[in-house]
Amino acid sequence: MTTMTLNRQSNLLSWIAAGAAVVVLTIVGLSAVEVQDQTAQITSAENTAIGITNLRYLVMETALYRERRSADQWNNRVLSFRSILDDSRYTSARENALLAKERANLEVMTRLYEKLRAIDMAMPLGASEKNPNEKRTLSVLSALFLTTQDMLDDAFELVRLNRQELIDSQDQAAHVMLISILLLYGLIVIAVLILKKKVLAPISTFQAVVDQVTLGDLAARVELDSADEIGQLGVSFDNMTERLEASHDALRAENTERLHAQADLKKTIDALALARDEAEGASRAKSQFLANISHEIRTPMNAVLGMLQLLHNTELTALQKDYAGNTQAAARSLLGLLNDILDFSKIEAEKLALEEAPFSVEQLLRDLSVILAGSIGDKNVELLFIVDPALPAFVTGDMHRLRQVLLNLISNAIKFTECGEVTVALNPALAPAVPGQVAIRFAVTDTGIGIPADKLDTIFEGFTQAEASTTRRFGGTGLGLAISQRLVALMGGALGVESRLDEGSHFHFTVVFHDAVVAPAADMRTEAVLQQGQLRVLIVDDHAGSREVLLALVGRFGWQAHSAATGVEALALIERSVDDGSPYNAVLVDWKMPQMDGWEVARRIRQLPRGDTAPVIIMVTAHERNALA
Length: 629
What we know:
The protein has helices at 6-65, 68-87, 93-118, 132-214, 229-312, 318-348, 361-376, 399-415, 468-474, 480-490, 524-530, 544-556, 567-579, 598-607, and strands at 357-360, 380-387, 394-397, 419-428, 437-446, 496-500, 504-515, 536-540, 560-564, 586-590, 616-620. By secondary structure, the chain is an alpha/beta fold. Helix 1 (6-65) packs antiparallel against helix 4, helix 3 (93-118) runs antiparallel to helix 4 and helix 5 runs antiparallel to helix 6.
């Protein structure tokens, strides 16, 4: 047996309600039409009575005045009354018989009126009682009055009959409306009972179970004894609560296991924290020990270096000088290692403090260029310093530690670059939010061997280098970058790096300095040079980057500068300047150039025809002074 679903039940009720509504509306409509017809019939009957009354009045007027106008009105009213009779429609036989009688009486009245008009209307009434025309007139008038009275009686009967039928129709319509209302009410009651039994009662049961589940009773079940949609929804809800109950039990078990695991984890964390504290204590003790032992070793090492310097001042054979020089170089290397270990230990022990003092940015770079000149040696490496003219000349900070960081970065760049260039760039960073401060971005870029991508995260660890072969090939302890990173962090910056294998590396950091309150005294020689006025300078260098740096440097003094990439080009420019009457005042020549080196260029310049003043020739090189000898 197929169970009727709520959807089918609702559809059936909808069709029944729609059918009942159609039946009721049809009956009501028919009743309304019938009432409307009865109202129209009453109107026709009343119009008939009015028309007869008008004809009767006209008969009386004709009898009294006998005017031509009365005859014309009679004809018009007869036509109008006949039209009323023709338009009248009645449903009962009695009414139709009365209507036919009215038509017949109208014809009788018409003939009688014609007889009345045929009598000599000119003779006044009462002239002679024996006048035969007068008697005929009275006879016709009497017949007319009797006929109109009969017609009036019939018209009033028509009105009475139609009004009675209207009352009957209205009563019938009222009965129909009452029956329809009762029928609709019965349908509504049946629908409500069905809705309550099939929908509201199951939903109430459903809601009670939902409330229990909401309060945490996952064992509650709907269990509706119905196969309709609500019953299916109850089955689905029961299945869901069963799964929820199973999941809740599983979660409760997992939570219990998690609580046990958390307790075990807390014990492990406490043990690790204790081990960490012990390790940090041991690390601090190690750092303190290294600092102490490094300091103790550095003291006699300084004495060794001093004695070796004194030994150089004595008369030694060439072999002895070589031995002493090698020993002094090894001692300096060892002293540098001790200094690195001491700095690293101080940083780890948090005992390294920065100083705040005004210093010259230009002097810092000049010191670096002098110190690093020996690191280049015979390498075909150009060391370029690029300084943005917008930077202040003096700032306040720890110049010693900043120089140490730059020295480490530039030394590494030179060490790992066999051929190419190392560029040191200083540029303004974003303006600090605090007035009186300046942010400088330092960048060291080389074209060396580069660093593998998987090693970039480890190069800043102490005693670590990118590859084991690096230590064997280039030497070093791996402390330089670790110390530099920590020093930059102490200065409030962060040391970053980008590198590509076999393409080079780019180290950079930004430090915020305070404006120098008291700047050191300006270099008197620089002031004297600046007072020379407009000078013409020629820059000769085969390296485009070097030419660009020197052009910018000369341009800062307001001098007129030109550049040449080769010695031949430089000689041609110098000859042309002499011919034009505007010779160069100074020539900056790179010492090491292909084809024609700096010495050859200087020699040929001296051989050129001179004007009144020979140019000053300045040899530019990244090598030590004794390498020029």
